[in-house]
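TOPIC: backbone geometry
CONTENTS: sequence, C-alpha cells:
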Amino acid sequence: MNPRTRMYLLHGGLFLITLITTTLSGAEWMFGRLFIPFEGMKPLGWDEFIAGFQFSIPFLSILTVHEFGHYFTAKANRVRVTLPYYIPMWLGIGQSIGTLGAFIRIQDYINSRRKYFDIGIAGPLAGFVLALVVLWYGFTHLPPPEFIFTIHPEYQKWGLDYGKYAYQNLPEGGAVGLGDNLLFNFFKTYVADPARVPHPYEMIHYPYVLAGYLALFFTSLNLIPIGQLDGGHILYALIGRKQFSWVAPVLFTGFAFYAGLGMFKPTDFAVLSDEAFFSELGSFALYVVFLFLAFSRISENRMTSLLITLSVVVGQLLLSWLRPDWEGYSGFMIFVFVLGRFLGIYHPETELEEPLDLKRQVLGWIALLVFVLCFSPRPFLIS
C-alpha cells in the first residue's frame, strides 16, 4: 500500500469514527439517556442511534466546511497542507459531543501576513455561514412545546410551566443548558416562534439547535484574537507584528482575568471553619500555580510572568471583594491554560510585512465582529 493510500485511509477512517461518536453523543443529548446500560435507566438502541444523525451530520458538516475552508485557501496560496484530522471522543457516560474537533497541518513556512490572513479567515467564515443555515432551520422547525414531555414525561404534572419547578431540587450538575450570545438570542427572539422555544436547560434535546449553538461556540473560540488561533492570524495580519506583540498579551491577560473571576472570594474565607479554611487555602494555592503555568510563556523572564500572575490574582480578589456578585466563567480556565502553555500567546513572525488591501481589511474586521456576535460570556449553564 503506497503512502498516499494510507494517508487517505487514515483521514477517512478518523472521519467515519468521528461520525459514529458524534452520532452516539448526539443521541444521548437528544434523548437524555445513554447507550451503556446503567441501573434504573433504559439504554438507547438502534433507533435512537439513527436519530442521532440529526445532530452529527449538521455539526460535522459545519466542522468539515471550516477545515476545508483552510485547506483550499492554503492550496490557492501554494502552501502545502494536510487533509483534516478528525479527533473522535465518546465518553459513554454523557457530557461529550463525540469529538475534540479537527485540524489540518500546515507543512510549509508561511512568509507573509496576507497568506496567514487568507488561510486563517477562510475556515471560520465558511463554517459560520453554514452554522447560520443550521440555526435558521433548527429554529424555524421547532416541534410543539409539548415535545419535551416525550423526553421528560415527569414534567407533564407541571404542564408547560415545568421551568418553574423541574430544576429546584436537582443535584449539582443535574441539568446542562445552552447559554446565550448576541446571534443566538437573535434567532430565539426574531426567527423562532416564541411559544415553541424551549427552556434553556432543554435546548440540548433539539439537535439542529444544539449543533448550531456549538458551531457558534467553537467559532468564537477560534476567532479569539490571540496567538495562532484563527483570530490571532487575522488580527496579526490587520495590525502587524509590532502592535500585535503587545495587544495579544493584554487580551490574554483580560481573558484569564475574566475566566477566574469569582472562583475565590475574600468573603468566603472569613466564614469558613479552620479545617475548611486550610482546605480552601490549598485550593487557592493550586489555582495560583495553575495560573502561573498558563502565564509562563507570556515573557521570557519568569519573574515577569510571576508578577503578571500575582497581579491578576490580586485584581480578581479585589474586584470580588468590591462586587461579589460579579463572576466570570471558570469553564474557560482549561482553554486559558492550553492557549497560554501550548498554543502560545504570540504569533510567528513573517518575512513579508506587507499591509493588507482594503477588501481584506474590511473582511478582517467583519470576522472580528463575528467573534463578538458568537461569543458567550457563559456558554453553558450548569445547575
Observations:
- The mean pLDDT is 93.
- The longest helix spans residues 230-260.
- The radius of gyration is 23 Å.
